[in-house]
């Protein structure tokens, strides 16, 4: 759904993106993470056709954003961290305006009411945008950018300033949009929440992609993506004892433990456990690795630096 190749962008005194390339599949939720100043917002703005890179290209649904930006924008919804609302307009008027701006045909009021209902704003249609709380303003901003039912949604720090209840509601919304087939990219520093709904993590540092991989335990519909499992043996064993496993060779650490990606079902996991026990291995545990997303992020960030 999103293909980026050799993307580079420069500000007068800094190269913000340096040969960035990656592929994001349809129906996924990608957590875009990295240190401050890593290039995340610039990358999102390039994807959203708001910045023109000096090198490389971006394809959205096969459309080259440099050659056909207007056509590409029809696929897009983009929520900026510092979004703006027309405070003097009512919620309904804001949504009607955005429906018209996106060129929706027919009665824009129907689209406006549908978007409001989806974001829990159906009882706020006659209230002015300027009178809403921070959380409700965020909901209205999201309703505006999804009113035309885009195939791709880009969000820059969407949970900034939200209370815990509003953040939980945002996570539910993102899961709902993904279930409808939307491809979503979310940039945030709140990795604990990203882990609740993201299927992949894309790490950017100093203008370059240093890692792009599935997040263990993530689901897309009924399909199961690779999970990270941790095998713990009561004592270390020879490497030959682990040869020929269905998951390939495992590298045990000095304490007899190994972490590996596993794409099979729970039945496949049970079969793997039977195989390990049948080999006479002292299996103490075989379960999902609960290393937090933040720990994975820090580990990969450190590994990429000299």
TrEMBL record:
One Pfam entry name: ABC_tran
InterPro entries referenced in this protein's UniProt entry, alphabetically: AAA+_ATPase, ABC_transporter-like_ATP-bd, P-loop_NTPase
Alphabetized UniProt keyword annotations: ATP-binding, Nucleotide-binding, Transport
Cited PROSITE patterns: ABC_TRANSPORTER_2
Top-level division of the source organism's lineage: Bacteria
CDD domains: ABC_DR_subfamily_A
Species this chain originates from: Zavarzinia compransoris
Domain ABC transporter, first and last residues per copy: 2-231
The protein's name: ABC transporter ATP-binding protein
Phylogenetic classification of the source organism: Bacteria, Pseudomonadati, Pseudomonadota, Alphaproteobacteria, Rhodospirillales
């Amino acid at each position: 759904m999103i293909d980026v190749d050799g993307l580079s962008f420069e500000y007068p005194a800094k190269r913000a993106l340096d040969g960035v390339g990656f592929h994001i599949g349809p129906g996924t939720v990608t957590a875009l993470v990295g240190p401050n100043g890593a290039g995340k917002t610039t990358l999102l703005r390039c994807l959203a056709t708001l910045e023109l890179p000096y090198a490389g290209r971006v394809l959205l649904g096969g459309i080259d954003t440099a050659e056909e930006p207007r056509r590409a924008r029809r696929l897009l919804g983009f929520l900026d961290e510092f979004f703006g609302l027309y405070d003097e307009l009512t919620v309904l008027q804001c949504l009607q305006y955005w429906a018209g701006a996106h060129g929706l045909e027919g009665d824009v009021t129907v689209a406006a009411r549908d978007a409001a209902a989806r974001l829990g704003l159906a009882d706020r249609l006659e209230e002015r945008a300027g009178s809403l709380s921070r959380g409700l303003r965020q909901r209205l901003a999201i309703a505006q950018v999804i009113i035309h039912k885009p195939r791709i949604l880009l969000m820059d720090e969407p949970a900034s300033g939200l209370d815990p209840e509003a953040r939980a509601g945002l996570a539910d919304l993102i899961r709902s949009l993904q279930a409808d087939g939307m491809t979503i990219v979310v940039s945030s520093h709140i990795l604990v929440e990203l882990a609740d709904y993201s299927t992949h993590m894309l790490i950017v540092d100093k203008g370059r992609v240093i890692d792009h991989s599935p997040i263990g335990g993530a689901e897309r519909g009924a399909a199961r993506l690779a999970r990270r499992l941790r095998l713990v043996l009561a004592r270390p064993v020879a490497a030959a004892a682990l040869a020929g496993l269905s998951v390939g060779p495992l590298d045990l650490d000095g304490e007899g433990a190994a972490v590996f990606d596993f794409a099979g079902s729970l039945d496949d996991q049970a079969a793997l456990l039977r195989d390990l026990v049948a080999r006479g291995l002292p299996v103490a545990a075989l379960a999902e690795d609960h290393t937090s997303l933040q720990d994975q992020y820090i580990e990969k960030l450190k590994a990429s630096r000299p």
